[in-house]
Every structure is written in structure tokens, then in C-alpha cells.
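Deliverable D4.2, example record:
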Amino acid sequence: MLDVFAPPRVVMERRTDGVLVLRGGELGPFPPSMAHVLRREADEHPARVLATQPADSGRASLTWGEARSQADAMGQSLLDHGLGPDRPLMILSGNSLEHLVLMLGAMTAGVPVVSLSTAYSLLSDDHARLHEVAALCSPGMVFADDADAYGAALAALEAAVPLQVVARGQAGVTLDELRATTPGAALETAFAALSPDTVAKIGLTSGSTGRPKGVITTHRMLCSNQQALGQVWPFLHHEPPVLVDWLPWSHTFGGNHNLGQVLAFGGTLHIDDGKPAPALFDRTVRALAEHPPTVYYNVPAGYALLVPRLEHDRDFAERFFSRLRFMFYAAAALPESLWDRLEALTREVAGRDIPLTASWGATETAPASTSAHFAGSRCGCIGVPLPGVTLKLVPHAEKLEIRVSGPNVTPGYHGDPQATAAAFDEEGFLRTGDAVRLVDPDDPSQGLMFDGRLAEDFKLTSGTWVAVGRLRTELISAAGGVIADAVIAGHDGEYVAALAWLNQAEARRLCDTDGEAPPDHPVLREHLSAALARLNEGAGSASRVERLLVLRDPPDLDAGEITDKGYVNQRRVLERRSGDVARLFAEPADPAVVTPSERRVAT
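Output generated by the structure prediction step:
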């Protein structure tokens, strides 16, 4: 693993009040901005492909030289239209070559970028979130790649952001007009003024614990983060990464971590227009087969769909693993059953160990703060602090809250001094609300285990704390991939129960049906009942799930039940679905509820 991972470096300080402080290694120098990175890499290899995307025939591509040229033109045009540090660029569309060059142009010109989840435009009925963001950020321009698809969203923003740009269709200014602009002295003046403290982006928090806030994201945060990743994954310096990635640039994982890595190390990104949804995942498989990645990033929901494909298609698996250095997951905990299946696949198909690793971070940390960059890390291990990062582990009830300081940490929230003040403790550490525990209390180099969000945990009437995050992943693992996600219930109750959604691809296979597997299918109920029995065997009350109710209706974005990261907002689901929660705890048991012994009440 020495050619993939650098040895972990961490020093731990124990304070008398129970606080633990973990310091990563020394951070090396980094460029002043991502725009400087773009120009450096474009000068070194202008003909190398920076990005591709699906097109009517094959894939459209963009070289590094073309990206530099178009970014300069876009940056000059943004300045000509009055954008600047206080008038950011709002982007509604998903990942695309147009989105990329416009983002790079804004960064070159010192214009902050506000990339929004496409769900705010395409899945929302009232576009309330768009109005909130426009009011918060005062954008000077809004971009959408398709005037027809985004027509309703553009209309909703017309009063707040009259200057609108599209790549296709009839609305406002066309992207080709921006691309045709001749760069001039104004752009070079703006570029010369860039510094590590220049605002590159305003990122939105996921909204998992409240209304999203605008996270000020500086070039210092982005560039220092990539410098740290290059130190713990040294092969990146001599092996430019090749990524096949769907993760949205509106989110810090896709837009800062993954895209940033390709930019920082002169790599190539093949944009995947699929996502972890059964109807779209074939696109992901095609992209991975066509362009085997050197590093692979995904969320647990993506691995839940990928693993069965790899297991049932040896040719695809061999292609996927052919030049893979490591696999990586983030944004939510990975069920241990998936971890085990991936490890078995690498041994059987690749004939070598391909590490499966993770890290931890937040929108406020651009995003990585830790990395499990060592062999033999356990499922759920988020690693040690990155170079330049200091972690402060503060006792909270029965857990340790993780707090962060370092060059990757935001200076605050845009236009919200109260939220900024509340976000930092008396020593200047960012409060995250996430909990961790040491793998080995005497050896910090073994890393940290993610231990859920403090706001989600609750007590039973017995006074026993329920670790929601841990129990949720254990439940999903016990179900063997049939459960896509779950919400844990039981606050001030006598026992723990859960609401769940099915992974229809696995459920259909289990029930041997071509159509949708219904929650009351006898084979499915028997499988879930047995899963609960396995989970509960020998476990205490806080680690048992006594009842399970499978929901048909997916989480509702407009209602705040799902975040930009793609995971379920535990608290909001329990609030909105109080009727379903009541069914879980009704006496006698509701007929639809699954129990470990499957004693179904007769109807």
C-alpha cells in the first residue's frame, strides 16, 4: 500500500477535562487559487482531456487548453455583465462541460459560484429554496443548460435575477455569447487580485439539521484540501486521476473533493449521467465499462447498486478493477455487508487487495478533514486528521463530538453573523454535531469511527441511549441490501422500531418478480423478519429493532425529508410521518408491521 497511502501521522493530547486533541502532520505549500491551478495544468498539458460527457454519438470532450481558453472568455464576460465578489453566479444545472467552464471562468474572475441541486429546480413545486438562496446571495446572473427543462425555475427567479444565461433554448443570453467574449485587461486584473482568502464558492449546507446556510468557501479551503490529499495519497502526483463520477457539483463531495482532485492533479473526469437509482444505473455501468477509473468515489446507495452488477458480470468486474487504485465512500455510513462483498470481489476478480477507504468532513471543511489512508482500516473508520488539520473531541453525554480547525475550515456563513458566531467554540474550533470514537484509545493512528449525529440520538424510557447512526447501518446490513434506507424511531419509548424503504433491485431479485416487489410480499416479509432476528440476537434494548414498517412513498425533497447528499433527514421524516410512527408502536401490532418472529396479526 506504500505507493497508494502515506503512513498516518497523528499526535494526540489528553486534557484533564476529558477533551482529546488530535493533530495531523505538517501541511505543505499550496497554490493561491484554483484558477492558478487551472492555468498551471493547462500550460503543462493543453492537449490532455480534462472532462467528457455523454453526447448523441459517443462522448463530447474538453481539453485542458480549451478549458483555459473558454474560462478566460467566460470570466471576462461575467465581469462585463457586472458580476464580482458581491454579485455571484448562480448555476441551476447538473454536471456538464458548460457548467465546468462557466465555474472555472467565474473562479478566474474572482466571482463566487453558487451551484444548486437540480432538485431545487426540477423536483420542486414551489421553488421556495431558489427564492431563499437568491435572497441570501444576491446573484448577478443565473445559468441553466436547458431553457425548456429549467423554464419554470428560471421564471420563478426572473424578478430576483433578470440576467439569465442558457446553453440551449430560447431564454436570455446564450452561453455562446459569453464564450465569444475576448478576454482583456479587466480579467487579468481580477486574476492578479486572487488570493487564498478570495471567495470561490458559496456552498449550501445539506439541511439535515435545519434550513440550509450559505457556507463561505475560499480558495484557501479548496487548495489546502487538495494539498493534504496529495500528501496522504502520494501516487496522485505521478499518476493523474481518472474519475467516472455522477456526484453533483452542487454538493461538496462531488464539486470540491472529486472535481477539485481532477483539477489539482491534472486528471480527467468522465461525467456520469447516471446516479444511484435503478432506472438510471445502467448509464453508470456503461460509463465505468468504457472508462475504467483509477480511483472510484460513491455514496453507499451507489455501492448497493454496483456490487450486484459486479457479482453477476465477470467481464464488467474485470474491466472495473483493471486499473483501480482504491475505492472510497462518504456522505453516509457504509453497511458492513457491502464492505464484505466488495472485499470478496477484489480478491476473486482483481487478484489483489484494492483498498476500500473513507474520510469525514462537511461543507464547512471543503470537505475532507480526515482520511483512512492506511491498510486494514475497518468498515466505518473515517481515519485520522489530514495534514494541517486539528481535531478536538469533546465529551457530550456518552459520546465525543468532533470539532475542527485548519486552513480547510470556512470563515463563516454568508450574510449570517449569528450562525457564524454559534458555529465556533471558544478556541475557534468548528462545531460539527457529529460524533466519533477512537478505534484504539491508546493508539490514535488506528483512526476514528464515525458514531452518528448527536442531534439524532435519543433515550428509551429505560434511560438507555440509542445510537441512531450506528443502528441504522446495522439494520441495513442485516437486511442484506434489500433495505435502501431507514429511519430509527422510539424516542422516550420502551423499544426501538424503524421505518424503511426498499432497494427495489434487490427486492425484485429476492421475490423473483419483474415488477415492483410490494412491501407485503410473503418472501420479502420473511426475509425482513429473519434480518431483524439476526440483528437482535444477543443485543441490548438500544441495539435491537423490534418492529419495522416498509414505506411505499419515497422521501419528499420539498418537505425536507431528503438532503442534497442524498440521505434521509431522520428528524424531518419522523415529524412528517407521525402517523406511520404511531403504526409502529400501536397495540395490537399493525398487520403491515414486520417483527422478528413474524407473528402477523390477522386482518
